[in-house]
Write a structure and sequence with these properties.
Blueprint (H helix, E strand, L loop, with lengths): L2 H7 L1 H14 L11 E5 L2 H15 L5 E5 L11 E5 L6 H13 L2 E6 L6 H4 L2 E4 L12 H12 L10 H13 L4 H4 L3 E6 L3 H16 L3 E5 L15 E6 L6 H7 L3 E4 L5 H18 L19
Parallel strand pairs: 1-2, 1-3, 3-4, 4-5, 6-7, 6-8, 8-9
Helix pairs in contact: 1-11, 2-6, 2-7, 3-6, 3-9, 7-11, 9-11
């Protein structure tokens, strides 16, 4: 078993621990009514997108998400949340330094307490028990989202983190459909907070397996992306299935993958497992993808 596969399997336990940690972590979490921005790079950015949508659904206030390199310096926020597994990503550290100079409250989520981010943010949540040896992020990203998600309390229409972990236990062990494994192309779709997870699923497939994947908001599927679907190609929907979409996928001969009752974060585990399976089938090392490093540190 690859290190990535082993780390993927630990996510249900990691999410439960994240929920417990959030319950006792008062300092730095966004407060209801604050105007908040969430940021990160790569996978962390996609988790930021998911959390921003969840926070607004929870009614806690306006919440935006940006890649750290594209953060709009002209906007005013009460608090900025930065997600950085390594704690060394250049764009995140630069942004936190800039925000400190403007007096904006900051919270960082990281896996490594020995890195520069510890002194760059006002408050830091260290999720070191969810750190990874693999270059590819899986459990840290979802654990960070579980931590932030648990900090919101009840979110209308969204399962508590503990129930998501139950769904995740099935996602870790349930066999992947043969049609999904044998496909040549995958389009990931999601509505609301699940759109961030669709983006992340596509990234995992590209990183680990060099696969041809795309990701869109689910309701945008019929506005162009459906053109790529056909025999041997998958439309994978995270969360609720929009009315009529299944019929559209069937009409063009594609394969629909949907676990409408499963928590979307748990269904992401299936996509992570698929990425590993495809990588191994191609003879790739899922732990050390081509052209990637654990952290992007830019030369000054």
């Amino acid at each position: 078993m690859s290190r990535t596969a082993a780390e993927i399997a630990t996510q249900p336990a990691c999410w439960r621990r994240a929920a417990e940690a959030a319950a006792s972590f008062a300092e730095g979490l966004p407060r209801p009514g604050e105007r908040v921005a969430v940021t990160g790079c790569g996978t962390s950015w996609f988790m930021a997108i998911a959390y921003a949508a969840l926070r607004e659904v929870a009614g806690h206030g306006e919440t935006d998400a940006f890649a750290a390199s594209e953060f709009p310096s002209s906007r005013a926020y009460d608090r900025v949340v930065a997600i950085t597994r390594s704690g060394t990503t250049t764009e995140v550290l630069r942004l936190l330094d800039e925000l400190r100079g403007r007096g904006v409250a900051t919270l960082a989520l990281t896996a490594d307490p020995r890195t520069p981010v510890m002194g760059a943010a006002d408050a830091v949540a260290v999720l070191d028990w969810a750190d990874e040896e693999s270059v590819v992020q899986t459990r840290f990203a979802t654990t960070a989202l579980a931590f932030l998600r648990a900090g919101l309390g009840d979110v209308p229409g969204v399962k508590p983190v503990g129930e998501a972990a139950v769904d995740a236990e099935l996602a870790v062990t349930e066999p992947l459909p043969e049609a999904v494994l044998a496909a040549e192309q995958w389009t990931f779709l999601g509505r609301g907070w699940a759109y961030g997870l669709a983006l992340e699923a596509g990234l995992k497939m590209r990183e680990a397996a060099g696969a041809w994947t795309e990701a869109y908001p689910a309701m945008e599927y019929r506005h162009g992306p459906i053109a790529i679907t056909g025999p041997g190609r998958v439309a994978w929907v995270f969360g609720a299935l929009p009315e009529g979409l299944a019929a559209e996928v069937a009409r063009v001969g594609g394969t629909l993958h949907a676990h409408a009752t499963a928590d979307p974060m748990a269904d992401l585990i299936r996509a992570q497992r698929l990425a590993v399976a495809l990588a191994e089938a191609k003879g790739y090392d899922p732990d050390r993808p081509r052209n990637l490093t654990r952290s992007v540190i830019l030369t000054p």
